[in-house]
Amino acid sequence: MDDSRPALGDVPRGQGPWPESNTSQAVQRWLEQRLTSSSSNDFREINSVCRLLLDVVSGLDRGGRISERWKASESQLDRLSVLADRWCEGEPLQYILKKVHFMGLQLTADNRALIPRPETEELVQELLNRVDLDANFSHRFLDIGTGSGCIALAWKSRRPEDSVKGIDSSVNALDQAKTNSETVGLSVEWVLKDVFENSMNWPEHPFDVVASNPPYIPSSEKSTMDSRVTDQEPQDALFVSDENPLVFYETIIKKCAADRWLKGGGLLGFECHRNFTQSVCNLFAEELWENVERSKDLQGNWRMVFARLR
Q1: Full domain range(s) for residue 185
Q2: Are both 297 and 184 inside the same structural domain?
Q3: pLDDT at 228
Q4: What is the mean pLDDT of residues 190-198?
Q5: Which of 132, 221, 247, 303 is the least buried, fewest Cβ under 10 Å from its Cβ?
Q6: Quick check: is 282 in a domain?
Q7: What angle is formed at CA 230 by the lines to CA 228 and CA 233, rounded to 5 degrees?
Q8: 162 lies in the same domain as 209
């Protein structure tokens, strides 16, 4: 395959070397080798990225490529090389593909908001498990720091009769949440609101369930993290100061109790840093809260905290 291709306007063009042939097996070997030039030394990650890129570009899953004896066209090889280079340069795969799957929903992914994680799916599922699943009994649900809107939209998809609201202090994040809401066809109210600001006269009525996955990573941990996260995703959705890493939890707990964001008997659920779940539990005043408990994620890490307002 000729390595020197003329550029077509502003359309990015791939660069060689190219595979020895365009068969499915040869293209996979070539793509895996190309991906190994990244900073990742995790073969499982490289293999997963390779499979997903092949699925997207070919329009077939691995079984389909085998059964149909798929061969890559020149334009498909060109696109694979461009996408592989972007990943090797440190761009998250979700941004490259412009999508992420969350609890059965396909959402837009870009640097306006944090990329939804599997641990956050677990938070939503744990909250659902604690709520009366009778569809005839609707709840008012609030997602604080909604970002991409993944929590609010996942809740609405499972409990369509509920009134769901998502708040965030970032205009860009709310733009992405609105886009996702329109894409998946779910009605959620999005509100530009900072939890640290005065909330007088808001909300008009307290919520039955409040969920939040706030920023919780101490700034000192940034140097130990993957640059694909620290260089690409919005910093204000990730990091808090080392001096007060629980500031969001303290504020949200206060808003729910003192400012009546949560009704009596209502449920509050947090995603937390695995090292801080007990510290978050300790923030709940016994005279105001009950059933305070923490829960592990599927990886065995303490990750979630739940409580009910008395």
Answers
A1: 100-309
A2: yes
A3: 87
A4: 95
A5: 132
A6: yes
A7: 80
A8: yes
Tell me how far apart the alpha carbons of residues 258 and 177 are, in angstroms, rounded to a whole number: 28
Q: Looking at the domain assignment, is residue 95 inside a domain? A: no
Contact 271, 248 (CB under 8 A): no
Q: State pLDDT tens for residues 253-293.
A: 999 999 999 999 999 999 999 999 999 999 999 999 999 99
Give Cβ neighbours of residue 58 (< 8 Å, ≥ 6 apart): 64, 65, 70, 72, 76
Whether residues 116 and 240 fall in one domain: yes
Are 84 and 217 within one domain? no
Is 225 part of any domain? Answer: yes
Number of domains in the chain: 2
Distance, CA of 47 to CA of 219 (rounded, Å): 31
**The domain spanning residue 139 has which CATH number?**
3.40.50.150
Q: pLDDT at residue 96 above 90?
A: yes
